[in-house]
Amino acid sequence: MELLGKGKKVLLGNEAIARGALEADVDVVTTYPGTPSSEIADSISRVAIYLKKNGEVPFYFQYSTNEKVALEFAAASAYCGLRALTCMKHVGLNVASDALMTYAYVGCKGGHVIVTADDPSCHSSQNEQDNRLYAKFSSLPMLEPSSPQEAKDMTIEAFEISERLEIPIILRTTTRVSHARGVVELNELNMKKKKGKFDKGKLAVTVPEVARKLHPILLEKLDKAEKISEESKFNFVEDFGGKYGIITSGVSYNYVKEAVEDLNLKCKIFKIGMSYPLPIKKLKKFLDECEKVIVIEELEPFIEEQIRNIADIEVYGKGFAKLKRYYEYDMDIVYYSLAKFFGVDYEIDDKEIEVAPRPPVLCPGCPHRATYYAVKQVAPKDTIYPTDIGCYTLGLLPPYETADFLLCMGSSIGTACGFSYATNQKVISFIGDSTFYHAGLPALVNAVHHDHNFVLIILDNSTTAMTGHQPHPGNAVDGMGNEAIAMDMEKVVKGIGVKHVEVIDPRKINEAKEAIKRALEYKGLSVIISKAPCILLERKKKERKIYEVNQEKCKKCKICITKFACPAFYFDNDAIKINPALCTGCGVCPQVCPFDAIEVVK
Questions:
Q1: CA quadruple 134, 140, 141, 143: dihedral positive or negative?
Q2: I need a labelling partner for 390 at 20 to 30 A (CA). Which of 99, 259, 433, 472 fits?
Q3: pTM
């Protein structure tokens, strides 16, 4: 088990955070999985399952229903003196923020590290919000690593700062740090099972009278955090000579350092690791030694704006050269911008290389494909399709085109309520099983209570598929490998008050189409639970049938390619064939073919 080893190991940034939590003797880890943060909790889960087989697990781990619940669980634990880690992707902090803002007032006794993994360039997200703003918004200190080694070290340091100030600490990463690999020095582990104690003597019920008293206390703690920032080993200056300054943080530091060495730039670099609150005194001293300064940071001008408030010299940043407020930076952007700042010749090739487009696709055998195919066979052309966060968002693409509107987790049901009122069009909403438990339940209660008229299809593939097959409340096992109570989705939906509920196997195309027809004809809210396991789980469990196209029967109608669109199909000159390496044997395509040309390989 690599994360329990010693010496030097090559780890992902996320794995390094997990290791840092273990070295800090963490007691509680909670999460809702979301890329680019998923490997933090997945690593902890693997450690827990491994240790469970060999004895007692010295910590508790939970894949929570959503990020708000994850934060609340960990906050209660930290308030009782235990060390807690809560990790999530950047938009997950939006979900948790209701609890976070008041939790900052209440504080904690044990250290609590809240990891937010931001996603510049939207590699796997619906926006690229800059969660450094949450640090300022909540008045909570924040650390930002630039490498896997720093990710581990900062995690440990964050626990210490949290306990010293008695408030949670934000550890902010980005995709390139979370998913970078680097050599990490592993120190001794000394994990022990502990229990906390609730102290009734503190102010923790935030009625207005209490909240008014707690806010100035929080600001006093933030003043102390600024002194810690002044002394932090993660805020340091590198002097390469010259009178020009560069201020940078996060992954951008790596690009800056390489550019300075490659272009032989004479400058001073102020590398910021504790980015909120900033070390103002140390920065003023740095600025006094520079003729002008440039700030290199991805997304918002978070550091730049604070530097402009204290600088008496010219400050360059967003809008200069190729420095933008959107998308992640790369070597070309940083090299070009620094070269222009220093007056050095540097050319980049802006010519776009023509490459064949490779849009993401649903896996061969994915049950969502069968659901979408059945829907498109029976739904009116002007049907509105609100969708949600998950693999099934790929219904956006041709030939399915069953995704018209998306905001956030659970929004497919809430917006379906609105569309059903605002228009006379049919509305078919899609949501996954994990997403349904995460944020769909309140919206479904709303739909039942107000008697909205639409069809909800819950795509139940028995796992949190998109982020790595983590368990959710519908599974009979938890993240530590323990038996868990599995929610019965049909009973949950009926218990909320939905009258028209059907459970289908989407791989039985004709039955699925008939059920969807009935749902569309029903006046009011109807729910279809389209239940079939994720094909990646199925392939691990059983031998599969392999299908082939009988070329004598095939009439080249291309329905298998143009309407069903399983990636296992391909053209070989004029012949349509099935790639046996991709075919999962799901058995749906023979039902789609009107000429019975798809047969099992004997």
A1: negative
A2: 99
A3: 0.93
What are residue 407's phi and psi, to 5 degrees? -115, -55
The four Cα atoms 42, 46, 47, 50 give a dihedral, to 10 degrees, of: 170
Residue 55 has what pLDDT? 86
Q: What CATH architecture applies to the domain 2-231?
A: 3-Layer(aba) Sandwich (3.40)
Enumerate residues 6+ apart whose C-beta is below 8 A from 47.
1, 3, 4, 18, 22
Q: In angstroms, how far is the first alpha carbon of the chain from the final one?
A: 42
CA pair distance 159, 136, nearest whole angstrom: 19
Asked if 152 contacts 17 with a C-beta cutoff of 8 angstroms, the reply is yes
Q: Which CATH class is domain 367-538?
A: alpha beta
**With the CA atoms of 135, 33, 28 and 473 taken in that order, what torsion angle do they form, in degrees rounded to the nearest 10?**
130
Q: Please identify which residue in the block is written with the tokens 């207005």.
A: 208
Give the residue carrying structure tokens 């951008």: 252
Between CA 331 and CA 178 the distance in angstroms is 18
pLDDT for 380: 96
- Identify the helix (H) or strand (E) that includes residue 61: strand 60-63
Are 432 and 467 in contact by the 8 Å Cβ rule? The answer is no
Positions of the chain with pLDDT lower than 50, given as ranges: none
**In the chain, which segments carry CATH 3.40.50.970?**
2-231, 367-538
CA angle (483 as vertex; 481, 489 as ends), nearest 5: 115
Domain 543-600 matching CATH 3.40.50.720: the answer reads: no
pLDDT of 540 reads 67
Please name the residue that has the structure tokens 């090299």: 335
The pLDDT value given to residue 360: 85
Fold of 236-342: Rossmann fold (3.40.50)
> CB-based burial of residue 543 (10 Å sphere; 0-12 exposed, 13-18 middle, 19+ buried)?
exposed
Q: State the span(s) of the chain assigned CATH 3.40.50.920.
A: 236-342
Which letter does DSSP use for residue 234 in this model? Answer: T
339: CB partners within 8 A, 6+ apart: 259, 263, 345, 346
Ramachandran area for residue 68 (φ above 0: left; ψ -120 to 50: alpha; else beta): alpha
